[in-house]
Specification:
The chain is built from 16 helices and 18 strands.
Length: 418
């Protein structure tokens, strides 16, 4: 029998397990929960999950085993945030006031704010400054139960700063408990120096940025902000095909503000995910489902922008799997809280807690290509676990505005202990 380092017992366990494929449709309501369960951890791996007698029959407890009594508490997989803009300089609280006064996202951007505001600050910041602010944000996320994130560049819009952003998040992933999966988003906006020469900037992305990012191993994914006034369908296709040729997996900002056909393009290109999707068409939903593209929905962004929400109920009816993410960024979603995103999703997208939990665990893992080791509490998976100080998982989105996290275990180590 294997000796173990940690035994967690007596808590309600949301395993979210049993899914080799993303969960969709009616199955999203079938959340696997052990009302009084037990988890054994050896090193960084979950070795057994089940009723306490079943688990104890499989493992050996020694005097060095740490026993955690989670009676009256809820145990979940580490939460996964599959869409963030972690690394940036400055902040944009003035735009918060502009938005309150009625300015739209595109109006703020056209007035020199928005993404370009952050580009100016990010270009000025040093690598160490970006790491310092990024580390603070990661601490916020970890304290709220997030153990893995995706992090995009896109606030450089030049070779040097795009690489600097990716380098900052790459180094933080080596230094911080949270695992970070990088995405190159050089096609996030048109830089001022190329505002009248879009084709030249696209050439720079394709001939300089993408090859350097790939050569240095700084990103797994390539993303494009496909939107009216930003990158067109044709421009997005050109960049994405070049990225795919270099071996990048694809993600897309699609159909956020206008129904442009981004979801259909994501399906055509067989992207891993299409994100935002507030204005997705019925055909886009069907095309994404048929090509296995996961929808990544960002309810906190719609909340901040005071816009209609992505049609999650239509996606459920059509069997399109989706994940939830914060879209943490300095403008349209300055929240690092996945539990808050779940609450907004439940209240305004009419998700059940069961659907929301699938969306921030196993489906989020599938959207990042890491479901073989993360996203559920199952034997053989990495021991990323959160213990919440409530006796039911349904209370996690219900009690919003308070941090319910009692303990976070990352790779078998206790990294937060409240």
């Amino acid at each position: 029998m294997q000796t173990i380092d940690i035994l967690i017992k007596n808590g309600q366990i949301v395993t979210a397990g049993g899914h080799e494929e993303p969960v969709a449709g009616a199955k999203m309501n079938e959340l696997q929960v052990l009302e009084t369960g037990c988890i054994a951890i050896a090193g960084d791996t979950i070795t057994a999950v089940g009723r306490e007698p079943e688990v104890l029959a499989q493992v050996e407890i020694t005097e060095n085993t740490q026993i955690i009594d989670a009676e009256g508490q809820t145990i979940t997989p580490g939460l996964i945030d599959p869409h963030t803009h972690l690394i940036f300089g400055g902040s944009r609280e003035d735009e918060f006031v502009m938005r309150i006064q009625g300015a739209s996202y595109m109006e703020i951007m056209e007035a020199g704010g928005g993404i370009l505001n952050t580009v100016t600050a990010t270009r000025k910041a040093t690598l160490q400054e970006l790491k310092q602010s990024g580390r603070k944000r990661l601490d916020w996320m970890l304290k709220m139960g997030t153990t893995t994130i995706e992090s995009k560049s896109g606030y450089g819009l030049d070779v040097e700063t795009e690489l600097k952003q990716l380098q900052a998040s790459y180094e933080l992933s080596q230094e911080h408990p949270i695992d970070i999966i990088n995405t190159f988003l050089g096609a996030h906006a048109w830089p001022e120096e190329y505002k009248d020469n879009h084709s030249a900037y696209i050439r720079q992305i394709i001939t300089e940025m993408l090859p350097l990012v790939k050569k240095r191993g700084l990103a797994r994914f390539c993303d494009v902000f496909c939107e009216k006034g930003v990158f067109s369908i044709e421009e997005t296709r050109e960049i994405m095909l070049a990225a795919k040729e270099l071996g990048f997996d694809l993600r897309m900002h699609a159909d956020e503000i206008h129904q442009l056909g981004g979801a259909e393009l994501a399906a055509e290109l067989e992207a891993v995910s299409a994100d935002h999707l507030l204005m997705i068409s019925d055909q886009g939903i069907k095309d994404m489902r048929s090509k296995g593209v996961i929808a990544v929905l960002l309810p906190a962004t719609a909340f901040t922008l005071m816009k209609p929400y992505a049609p999650a109920q239509k996606m459920l009816e059509e069997g399109l799997p989706f994940a939830l993410a914060t879209d943490f960024n300095p403008g349209s979603s300055p929240t690092p809280s996945i539990p808050l995103a779940m609450t907004i999703g439940c209240l305004y997208m009419k998700l059940t807690p069961e659907q929301a939990f699938h969306a921030v665990t196993i489906n989020a893992a599938h959207s990042l290509g890491i479901a073989d080791k993360l996203g559920s509490i199952e034997s053989g998976k990495q021991a990323d676990i959160v213990i919440f100080d409530v006796d039911s998982y349904r209370k996690i989105p219900y009690f919003y505005g308070v941090n319910l996290v009692k303990m976070v275990i990352k790779k078998g180590k206790i990294v937060i202990n409240n």
